[in-house]
Amino acid sequence: MKVIVLGLGNILLRDEGVGVRVVEALAARYILPADVEVVDGGTAGMELLNTLAGCDHLLICDAVQTDAPPATVIELVNAEVPAFFQTTRFSPHQLGLADVLATLTLTDEAPRTVTLVGVVPLDLELGIDLSPEVAAVVDRVVDSLVAEMRGLGLTLKLQSPVLSSLSPTPLLHEKHSGCPAACGGGNE
Is the whole model's pTM more than 0.85, yes or no? Predict the structure, then answer.
């Protein structure tokens, strides 16, 4: 079984980067099984095609625009996810992810299950820190992702506090718009 936990968002626009910040927290706090891959998808779209092809379960974390108050956590599953991204184009990478999921379906490489744990943003201005309101729900979102993985029969163990502060689990880095070329970003 192959599980991908995908964090999406632009970390340069405060709460828009919540998905990336959540998967960073997940990777720092937990020892994950070998069949779980944590991916910092940044603002990537179709570039994620090969990364996501053939995974069994896809867990996505992203900022989502709904009528709910800021810092509200929402959860969507399976067909609700691409439908949400098709009707709510909050960010260009969400449209890209909808295209990736559609392409994977056409090529018979789509995940069996897709879960989106989204957070309604408060502040989308330039800045690298989450707003205090959104930062306050990061632990709850990490817990939701952990519960999803445990529901798949996976065993996750907390890192020891010393290890997690010294050596966070490296993430597969994808492109962030605005990153210098050295980090694989778009500013060449």
Answer: no
